[in-house]
Task: structure prediction
Amino acid sequence: MAAVFGSQTIAELWILHPAAGLNGRSSIDLVATPFGATLVEPYLERLEDGVYI
Result:
């Protein structure tokens, strides 16, 4: 995840805060369930590709 954000510190901050692309939920809350994890992974892939919606 640090590769997506450029640093471990930024990645750690991102995982704790609500993300617009995750309907205002934080990724740390979503990855607690198998379904939520399936939402976070493609979102990170889109961020890595420069798609922010």
User: Anything to note?
Assistant: The beta strands are 18-19, 25-26. The radius of gyration is 10 Å. The mean pLDDT is 90.
